[in-house]
Known about the structure:
By secondary structure, this protein is α/β, with parallel strands linked by helices. The chain folds into two domains: 1-37 and 131-319, Rossmann fold; 38-129, Orthogonal Bundle (Helicase, Ruva Protein, domain 3). The chain has 13 helices and 14 strands. The strands form four sheets. The chain has a seven-stranded parallel β-sheet with strand order 5-2-1-9-10-13-14, sandwiched between helices. Strands 7-6-8 form a three-stranded antiparallel β-sheet. Strands 3-4 form a two-stranded antiparallel ribbon. α1 (8-21) runs parallel beside α2 (46-56).
Amino acid sequence: MITILTGGTGGAKFVQGVVAAVPPADVTVIVNTGDDLTWWGLHVSPDLDSVAYALAGLLCRERGWGVEGDTFECLARMQRLGAQSWFQLGDRDLATHLRRTQLLASGRTLTEATAEIARSLHISARILPMSNDRVETRIVTDTGELSFQEYFVRERYRVPVHGVHFSGAAGARPAPGVLDALRHTDAVLIAPSNPVTSIGPILAVPGIRAALCETHARVAAISPIVGGAAVSGPAVELMRMRGLTTSIAGVAEAYRDFLDVLIADQRDAATAPAVEQLGISVCLTNTMMDSDHAKLALAQATLEAVPQRRQRAKVNSAR
């Protein structure tokens, strides 16, 4: 059994590689919902949808989000009618948000709505939101706080960031199944996602970080930093803001209280000793997922790096 923590486009690609390497029914994916937003009155869960589309073979290859071959007629018409249009929803993608909103309005939890959508898309892997409670990633800038989507999409992450916090996290609970998936699994894999705004919200939900420290499964993370730069997105700026070095050592530092193995790109071999000084093993491989073959190869290398179970759980030393 494999449990994956993920968010963002890199995470969705990695999930595709894992389900090509092992039976999808053996995979549980715990997904960031700190990016969720209400748009045109609809509950939109970008990371949940990217994972679902990836597992269903629908994910747009060029964009890394949304549905392959989608059209944007509704977006154009809404813009013409005076509605905000900076957050782009495709026409087929829109149906997912309509259905989720309908299910939530009928009294279903986000976990139940996600399971229903996954069943409709014939997905056999289990997709779990990190929490059924609302947790919102908030970005502190010179002009005030922004939601993650306002920062990432509307502002194209070009504004200086002074802080990140997760509104509602302190009172949130892990979604049903999340803690069991972390405690009773053969391996926990942290996708090559932004440590601050993709994995950070998951770890901010009380109980999840402790479960990672206590699990007897080995925990591996794939670095989203290659050669000191982010593969995509604002990871470098956000890590620097958090006081983390923008290197594979900074990624390891973000997870050091529970991480056993860091999967890093071969180009970062010179930084591997700094990671090993933290008591974390390093596996060097090609981490660029620019083809289906590369996704599968990275998943296989990661799984080969975590075959043994821990002799004992790590001590929870989270700051």
